[in-house]
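Quick start: what a row looks like.
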Amino acid sequence: MAKEIVAFRDVDRARLLHKSYGDEEALAAVVSDIVRDVRIRGDEAVAAYTERFDGVRFEGGCRVSDREIEEARQLVDPEVLAALLEAKRNIRDFHIKQKRVSWMEPREDGCVLGQLVIPLRRVGIYVPGGTAPLVSSVLMNAVPASVAGVAEIVMATPPGSNGRVSPEILTAASLCGVSEIYMMGGAQAIAALAFGTATIEAVDKITGPGNIFVTLAKKQVFGSVDIDMLAGPSEIMILADSGGVPQELAADLLSQAEHDVLSSAILVSPDARLLKETLVEVEKQLPLLARREIAEKAWAQYGALILVEDLTQGMALVNDVAPEHFELVVEDPYVWLGQVRNAGAVFVGRFSPEPVGDYFAGPNHILPTGGAARFSSVLSVDTFVKKTSVIHYSAEALRRDASAIVTLARKEGLEGHAKAIEVRL
């Protein structure tokens, strides 16, 4: 059935916000079995699942050797290498500005209060392979970890059909200071990173997007390790006025639809003409995509053209949906930017299409999806540090505050707490 323009009053918000992966309980049970098996059998289980799911049998373990990494760099096109280096520089320059430092505040009464900002020792970054090896995800995970001061950055990525990791992914990892690379994917990779095996040391945190099996595995291992977020299929939402260019808007919608059959691409506008012309452009451009089949399915299921009364109503819908990527393609966009409450990243103006952020501008492209932008943030340097409070009381300060502390402790029925104060008086 042909795509139709939908009026604001008829928008099915539930469909925009909640996507079906099928029987998630059944999928979670499968993932649970894999996670438990890897926890028990370690390397043997990782090898078995890699052969089963990826068709690759390990010869001597799944770690990529230093020699393979060195050889990979020689296979990368010089133009690609130059682009990787420039993108890395932009990403690093942006993330350096996020770096926090420890602080201490001495007081006149002899107290010192403060906070230690401590980088995690060892993190695991997951880089998807499958239908589109995501070189940019290496940069977006590893660069902020490096800026944060993480000592050991470990990467897991599934092997390609040739039984190897792409030279570009290996080279990007080498450029970003990744210390270990393991050729493994899916739930088995997440379990191996979380719990360790005989040849893989467990990590403190796992970051990076993946398919539903990766996401469910991250959910199941959380608590044993930390995770960044539960990432779902890619999303783009565009709010455009009559100045939008249909050809450009259609291309931007399809830039996300080609990611996955569950990706969503939504255009919102008070201009019915713009919506109709953009729909025509989408139908023109779809057949030209190399990933046409994926994009067509995504557009049919989760594409939408929504007619609103005005930009105010459109912005309210954007904040309701809380999209991963939000393009603000209107006259005087900074007038409207202050009204954005829920979005993973905002792309301002006609010449800021989403792929600028995916690859090159500097801000991170690992963003909350599925409405999680209502309460969570983009991956950043903060993702890779922990904060520890410092409390140093003087005798004078303890005598001054003792009565209030003892009162609160006894109010809670915790006599031991009260006594720990009184014994010092």
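That is the whole record. The first helix runs from residue 13 to 17. The chain has 17 helices and 14 strands.
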